[in-house]
Request: fold
Amino acid sequence: MKIIRHAGNWAVLAIEQVFNKIFGNPLNPFYHLGSLTFYFFWIVLVSGIYVFIFFETNLAGAYASVEYMTVQQWWLAGLMRSLHRYASDAAIITIFLHMFREFCRDRYRGVRWFSWFTGVPTLWIVVMLGISGYWLVWDMLAQYVAITTAELIDWIPMLPGSMVFNFLEGNITDRFFTLMAFLHLLGLPVGLVFLLWTHVSRISQIDFYPPRPLAWGSLVALTILSLLKPAISHSPAQLNQSPTVLHLDWFYLNIYPLVDLVGPGWAWGIASGTTLLLLILPWLPPRGEKPRAEVNLEHCSGCGQCAQDCPYGAITMQRRSDGRTFEFESRMEDSLCTSCGICTGSCASSNPFRVSKGVLKSGIEMPWYGAEELRTRTREKLSALSGAARIIVYGCENGLDFRVLDTLGVAILMVPCSGMLPPSLLDFALKKGAAGVVVAGCREGDCFHRFGNRWVNARLRGERKPHLFAGTERERITVFWGGKAESHELLERVRSFRDELEKREGFPHA
Ligand code: HEM
Reply:
């Protein structure tokens, strides 16, 4: 599994690098796959409502009403029909990329199992939505879909097993068609909304909407595609005839050729086996978890910054329980914590200047890597430095390959996430003799822990608490965001940063 994941991750990073060059990090569609899927669902919803105005939900009128939209009203209803189809296809693409990406980036195991596990059934609902949609057109493709679905359902042992027979006998009734329409228009969408709500319920501050240029760009692309290649129907369904040529939508209807090829039993086996494999994937093998963050109430002022910054909603603010004058205190929910340490970076008590003698305790920190460890390791790393290049690099564990810096003689201190660093620690490093500080981690827009590099940037710009001290020499701090493929760019950045520092007056030579 590890080999597959690593190979996939390598490919994903390489493709994303190309997209970063074309779109720039903030607009890279790979960093917005979840929100793009939501957006495509919106297009599907709006276009679907419009199409429904003209659609007749009965066997006799369905085909003609769709033809009317496609031919007579091609400029709006037809366009909406095409948008409805292509946005649904686009959603399937983004869902699979999203799933593949989370897998390759190893963001589906451990605490994150929940998002993965609840994502899997959404695949079934989305595919069933697509299938029922094709059914409603009631053309030859719909007939093929209906009869092959009947074969699949008839195969299930507990059911009476007469569905195909009914179709072939022409016994399909309006009632059955209405049931399909109900599933497509109401039952499945409601199920999908509920599942998606569950899917994202353990993640905080979700971007439900992609950045505007990406949203407009996608809409324009789908509209152009709809105008160039409008969605059309096959000839009307005729149960006494077999379809000869079918234009399948491979995104939604791929199960049907499989049924033709291997029979319904095997098709069920493959579909349910794949689903089962996907469901248990987070435990193949499970992720080795580190101890979660803990609240140290005596150092917590209840300011709530950790709760605002936590990417997984693992921290909530509760009424004070220790009788101190503060109104609130932080409370940890272990089952949601990914041990990223971002909360330590958010906590004002992590300030290394706060306690000069004795152990520094943050209001919230991981027992294995807290504010004191950050301070002590910073001191140790700095004392081991010699020469002019007194630079300390705080590196996040999830992106770059820091071995490229070995030749430079800089100090490297690894942290689970760049967001774990309180800005005061960077100031501390400078005060304790570093000529410069580099904070380096995942590509911008693609933090392994969702918000680490975003919070670092905001804190250094003074837009998010805790801020850098007013007197800190900001020019002696730099950031670098990148993936493994950008490791050599990191080397170049650190080298040129060192050269800049050397040119500066007051460079603290050892
Ligand atoms: C049906 C459509 C889906 C939509 C609209 C959707 C949407 C989202 C969104 C918006 C997020 C939050 C991303 C972020 O802000 O970092 C997310 C997270 C996630 N999704 Fe989906 N998702 C879908 C299907 C799936 C499927 C099929 C899977 C896998 C089986 C999946 C796996 C995950 C995982 C593992 C995360 C958590 C990532 C993390 O913890 O950083 N999703 N999804």
Observations:
- Residues 74-104 form the longest helix (31 residues).
- The chain has three domains: 2-283, 293-343+361-368, 369-510.
- The first strand starts at residue 294 and ends at 295.
